Amino acid sequence: MRWHLKSHPNPKIKTHLAEVLQVSPVVAHLLAQRGIETYEDAKDYFRPHWDQLHDPFLMKDMDRAVDRLNKALSEEENIMVFGDYDVDGTTAVSLITHYLSMLSAHATPYIPDRYKEGYGLSKAGIDKAIQEGIKLLICLDCGIKANELVNYAQTHGVDVIICDHHTPGDILPKAYAVLDPKRSDCTYPFEELCGCGVAFKLVQAHVLHSGGDPESIRPYLDLVATAIAADIVPMIGENRVLTYFGLEVLNKSPRPGLKVLIGERFAKVTDLVFLLAPRINAAGRMKHATHAVELLLCTDLDQAHVHAEAIESFNTQRKELDREVTQQALKQIKRSKDENKAATVVYDPNWHKGVIGIVASRLTETYYRPTVVFTQSGSQLAASVRSVRGFNVYAALAACSEHMLQFGGHKYAAGLTILPEQYPAFKQAFENQVSKTLLPEHKTPTLNIDIEIKLSDLTPKLYRIIDQMGPFGPGNMQPVFVARDVRDTGGARCVGVDQNHLKAQFTSKDSHRLDAIGFGMGASLENLKSQENCSIAFVLDENEWNGQKRLQLRLKGVE
Q: Residue 541's closest CA among 478, 454, 493, 494?
């Protein structure tokens, strides 16, 4: 891994921030790096407020969407709430379904079967809507490229409102309304909303149009925050504000379904990513995502516990399959002698479709290159795609479109389907395209470091201020520090069930000592033991043991 020390911010801005905010040079440095230049900037950053949310009617077609929703409500039409089977889709479906139920609307949630219907808006779902006399279908976290299916629905008397955040094709579907901040003719100020975020903006717009309390929809933000964290969209702008208030809801008055999953802990973004998201996703991966929607819509804690137990079981199955398929994929790469190629493309008809996205991520971590993992899906092959930092895999797929039936997604993650006979040509075309466009800096993972620091500068006060810089995520990552010329006090060892974590204590020349933990860094023990002094990269953390809280370094690298 290559360490990259970020450039120093403007010294005048640093000095100004240190003076007006009465903070240390280290904090001023971190804030200036994040584009904060004034007292007001810092106030908005540390204390997000409701007024920072944009007017939802700035989004193209929002007025049409609200008008059509009002028509459905006034005429008591049946509404289908259709969404993708991942966290973003299931939270969006739960949000819209619950909101409509509060208006006494006839709303039916619908999640496609991952294995029978595949990703996105499905003919089976539309046919069900037609059969049940549904007049309005709200399509969440998908649909932006479902032109033919939208036409099919519209010609059969089912109006469609699309709430999506994926990159549109050249021609938009002819839906009644298309809400997507990424559409080229949309001037909404923030493009990086997730699907659940777009759904929330529809609800926000409807409340405003109806003359309701603008802040009455805060209780939905635990769902929105979970979706933002799970979908790994940038934690900047409106996403950061929504997540800030969503964590507030999650920690004070979460809905029962999330409460039983999160337990009594004080929830942070990392809990959304590593605790909530895998479990909510597991329902759609192993069984059916309807289980996740039922959990999220629960109003009773006892019933929520029943659903949560089932989802926990699905997650256990998912972890076992994930481990098994990853090992098979790694063996296939070695057997095919593909270790040195620009891209990874693997296929096995027996791999479980529910885990190929996770496996693609695992392979990307191992070989650090764009990765496509295929499995059999009916008469076709379906794949999940993952990329590396800085490489636009969506653009690479677009260049190979002649070898695919369909594809969709964004810069770092996508999905696609092909015919079995297209696999060899696709694999070669994707390899060729990646070879041509993958730059040297894309081939090595980079650890971005904010600032060099002394161990003596790491204080509880600094930790408290950094903690207030959250919620953290892409675009607002937790600050990474580097300390030079430190040494292990002699007790460095591997810990954990698989002995793959590194536990150590470091001391500096001025005798300041701090404990450290490096998750997944067990392999660094030998390197650490072989040198007297070293440099460590880390984030500042806090460890609680027996009711006592102590500062701890969470290692990112050792040199």
A: 478
pLDDT of 491 reads: 87
**Range 390-427 burial, b when 16+ CB lie within 10 A, else e:** ebebbebbeebeebbebbbbbebbbbbbbeeebbeebb
Query: What pLDDT was estimated at residue 497?
Result: 85
Cα–Cα distance between 115 and 120 in angstroms, integer?
12
- Exposed/middle/buried for residue 368 (C-beta within 10 Å: 0-12, 13-18, 19+): middle
- Which CATH code, of 3.40.1010.10, 3.10.310.30, 3.40.50.1100, 2.60.120.10, is assigned to 336-442? 3.10.310.30
Residue tagged 């006839």 (tokens)? 106
Query: Which residues of the chain, if any, have pLDDT below 50?
Result: none
CA–CA gap between residue 315 and residue 311 (Å, rounded): 6
- Give yes or no for a contact between 517 and 502, defined as CB atoms under 8 angstroms apart: yes
What is the architecture, at CATH level 2, of domain 2-7+446-558?
Beta Barrel (2.40)
SS3 174: coil
Q: CATH 3.10.310.30 region(s) of the chain?
A: 336-442
Residues 6+ apart with CB under 8 A from 104: none
pLDDT value of position 515? 94
Q: Give the orientation angle of helix 290-297 with respect to helix 87-102, to 10 degrees.
A: 50
pLDDT at 527: 86
Show the tokens assigned to 377. Answer: 């899906």
**Two tokens at 184?**
């080229």
Helix, strand, coil shares of the chain, percent, nearest 5, are: 45, 20, 35
The fold of the 56-310 domain, in CATH, is inorganic pyrophosphatase (n-terminal core) (3.90.1640)
